Amino acid sequence: MKFHGTAHRFGDHVDTDQIIPGRYLTSSDPAFLAKHAMEGALPPGFADRVTAGDVIVAGVNFGCGSSREHAPLALKGAGVSCVVAESFARIFFRNAINIGLPIIECPDGLDWVTDGDEVVVDVRAGTIVDTANQQQRNVAPFDDFIVELLDAGGLVPYARKQLAAKGAPS
Fold this sequence. Notes:
Distance between the termini: 27 Å
Number of domains: 1
Largest sheet: 7 strands, mixed
CATH architecture: Alpha-Beta Barrel
Strand order of the largest sheet: 4-3-2-1-5-6-7
Radius of gyration: 16 Å
Structural class: alpha/beta
Number of strands: 7
Helix content: 25-40%
Number of helices: 7
């Protein structure tokens, strides 16, 4: 599982209200949420700049605040292929994996990635490469179960696939 896209840089402590403001939580439609993704964060205009496959690169404690599945759903709906941050709020981490959005922790820091650089993230190998400056960092790779879960599109599709394989009704 490898992702290649443009980096969108954000700072520390980006909370779920910045990722998707509360006024949009009347819908769980990823396409609707995508139009408002990162609307509360700086720099403005993310939803207009992001293209399918892009990567969010952030500092510490990304996804802090309210525990809402809408936040990773908005990012996934916007076409974000993965989020790389120095650290994540635990509930955001779990929600992202559950809806099938890969998130990678790089505790050694990410100041070497500039907004707009092309990055390649390989979750099996545990590498992040900035192709503009040829810098690379090694991170903890995902284990096979998490890769299977992400490949399936998240926890619910993964469970349905497992049940179907056993002949159980989904």
